[in-house]
Signal recognition particle 54 kDa protein
Amino acid sequence: MVLAQLGGSISLAVEQMSNATIIDDNVMNQCLNEISRALLQSDVNFKLVRDMETNIKKIVNLHDLSGGHNKRRIIQKAIFTELCRILDPGKPSFTPKKGQASVIMFVGLQGSGKTTTCAKYAYYHQMKGWKPALVSSRAGAFDQLKQIATKAKIPFYGSYTESDLVRVAFEGVKRFKKENCDLIIVDTGGHHNQEASLFEEMHQVAEATKPDLVIFVMDSSIGQAAFDQVQAFKQSVSVGAVIITKMDGHAKGVGALSAVAATKSPVIFIGIGEDKDEFEVFDVKPFVGRRLL
Ligand code: GDP
């Protein structure tokens, strides 16, 4: 279920519950069943959905509430709290500071949207007055990064001829530190699978550039399989934050978000389109409030 559809289904279920003349167990259960069904269709893990229902029923004990209580509000609040809980990793991410050079290394599988996301991240910060720069440490992807960077007027570094990509990353970071850039973004190689060579390359780039933050970029279409993918990357490199791409078109987006939260890795942005500004900060409460309820 794509994000807008999921939000529509959850809001409708809550609205129908709120419009009932009398709020009893039946009405509440029907509302929760509909929300659960919608979440399962978005590939949220079954256990998470079941726990959410159990918790809401525990928080809202209709028999203990006197007539004076606003049962609708209490149920709505419990639903909000539980949706936030499912999507909240409970752990903040390192946040770079404007004016202080930070190296941010991007990792992820090929096709996940990594290069596009490096540029979106740079552009987002540039619009807020930062001095970002892009370094391509990735075979065959320099042209793509160069094109995006040129369009967005962001300085970039890469090489068509140097085959030692670790060296390219090192040189790029060195240059932009000298030029007083405060956000040095390193795009790294991505393979189709989680092969050992991908992890080895990541290690070497991390050794050479000493990133302040490693961001794992992931395509939302894999849904709850994100759990295993994030864990695999975390075992190889110290992933400090996650960006989930293609939240605009995929049925399993919220499943992916909840799976990443379950790995206790903070999601900091989501990609919601191909353009450089189709990118938004991910913050659990506003996301649930605006997109799901
Ligand atoms: P990489 O191989 O991981 O660097 O992936 P790319 O950055 O080349 O992106 C792969 C494709 O996904 C491109 O066609 C991008 O335009 C597209 N893409 C990236 N992010 C998003 C997003 O948030 N939404 C949509 N719809 N497409 C995206």
The longest strand covers residues 213-219. The chain has eleven helices and eight strands.
